[in-house]
Amino acid sequence: MLAIINATLVMPDHFIPNASLLIDDGKIVDFGKKLAIPEGAEILDVNGLYVGPGLVDIHTHADGETWFYDDPEKCSKTLIDHGVTTVLPTLYYSLNRQQFLDAIDTIDAAAAAGKMPNFAGYYMEGPYLNPNFGCDRENNPWRGEIKKEDYEEILSKVKHTAKVWALSPEREGNMQFVKDVKEAIPDIVFTVAHSEATPDQIEELMPLGLKIGTHHTNATGTLESFPECRGVCVDEAVNYNTDIYAELICDSLGIHVHPYNLRLLTKIKGKEKIILISDSCVFYGPPIPGCEEAFDICFDFNGEIAGSKMTLDISCRNMMMHTGCSVCDAFRYASYNPAKALGFSDLGQIKKGNTANLTIVDQWFNVKNTILKGEILK
Question: Does the global pTM surpass 0.90?
Answer without folding.
Answer: yes
